[in-house]
Amino acid sequence: MSILLIVLGMSLATMVPRLLPALVMERLVIPDWLDKWLKNIPYAALGALIFPGVLSIDEQPEIGLIGGGVAVVMAYFRLHTMVVIIGSIVAVMAAKAVM
């Protein structure tokens, strides 16, 4: 019984912070400039999370930069996300084989 209460409490603790913003944002009117700015936050956060990993791959930052560069070029041409990921992985593997 106590495990069930723990699971229910944990589900409530994770559901409430996700549900409240959705309910509040549904009723707010956001200006266009703020909406554009908010839509760019995930990309900035993702870049901040990925960039240190690019520089610390296998103690050879040039290999990470090659993989990151390939990903940037492929993303620039608006290829599918999985194609970009697989392309950068192949580029890193090729660079490691050559170096």
Q: What sequence of helices (H) and strands (E) makes up the elements?
A: HHHHH
Ends apart, CA distance between termini: 58 Å
Q: In what range is the share of β-strand residues?
A: under 5%
Radius of gyration: 21 Å
Quickly count the domains.
1
Overall pLDDT: 88
The main β sheet shows up as: none
Transmembrane segments: 37-57, 69-95
Keywords: Membrane, Transmembrane, Transmembrane helix
Organism: Laceyella putida
InterPro entries: Brnchd-chn_aa_trnsp_AzlD
Characterization of the model:
The chain has five helices and no strands. The mean pLDDT is 88. Helix 3 (41-55) packs antiparallel against helix 4 and helix 4 packs antiparallel against helix 5. The protein is flat and about 55 Å long. It is mainly alpha-helical and 99 residues long. The longest helix has 26 residues, at 2-27. The chain has one domain (2-98).
Short description:
Pfam families: AzlD. By secondary structure, the chain is mainly α. The chain has 5 helices and no strands.
Keywords:
flat, Brnchd-chn_aa_trnsp_AzlD, mainly alpha, 99 residues
Set out the fold topology.
Blueprint: H1 2-27, H2 32-39, H3 41-55, H4 61-76, H5 81-98
Helix pairs in contact: 3-4, 4-5
InterPro entries: Brnchd-chn_aa_trnsp_AzlD (IPR008407)
Protein name: AzlD domain-containing protein
Transmembrane segments: 37-57, 69-95
